[in-house]
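Annotated sample (chain length 238).
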Amino acid sequence: MKTLALSLATAALALTSPAPASMTINSSATGASSTASATGTFAAFATDAASPERTYTYNGVTYEYSTADITLSGDIAGGTNTLEGYAARAEAAKRAVQAYADMQDRFGVDRISPNRFKWDAKGASGTPSVIVSIERQLAFFYLGDTLVGAAAVTTARDNKLTPQGIFPVWLKKQMHYSKAYENTPMPYTQFIDEHGIALHAGPNPGYPASAGCVRLPKAFAEKLFAKTDIGTTVYIGA
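Output written by the structure step:
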């Protein structure tokens, strides 16, 4: 059993934050593989994803959070230093909303069909980052502040879990075979937590269908794999 203590802020804000909530997860991973199934519920909170303010609301009270609350730190080996509390989930949701607007501006589209993607790296430079929108089933890749790519994705089906929050890429494998799912091939795998959740190429039917991982169109997964580094930040929002 995996128990995530979902704090509403870091220790620095503990005196001004509400009591932490918790979520219990069953992990089906054996070694590095997919993934986990949700058996609990996350205490209710809300965020105005379109707002530029770094806030979220819990039980009718609005809380501010800082850069420190959403910054990965420490040793990323093993994928244990993920951020999955309310501040991280709120920040990931906000970034997903902004990424969708950036996609509309840069590529002139409102949606991307299954197994399709857009890519334009011209003039782009800077630190790589990845943003995933569970609601829109889209992934976005940035270099610095420039949106380079956007793709249709597949996240977790019912009774499974694609975690939300902020994660580091801690292991990359050009080809991985899932130990939990009969050696299913997972090309261009990038693991983001200790329980086998990863970005990788895989079937992309246009709706949530994975066991927890974020499946990408193969050509997009290959391009992404070539551009990211160990330690690249991945934001997964609602």
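Annotation: The two ends are 24 Å apart (CA to CA).
Annotation: Residues 86-107 form the longest helix (22 residues).
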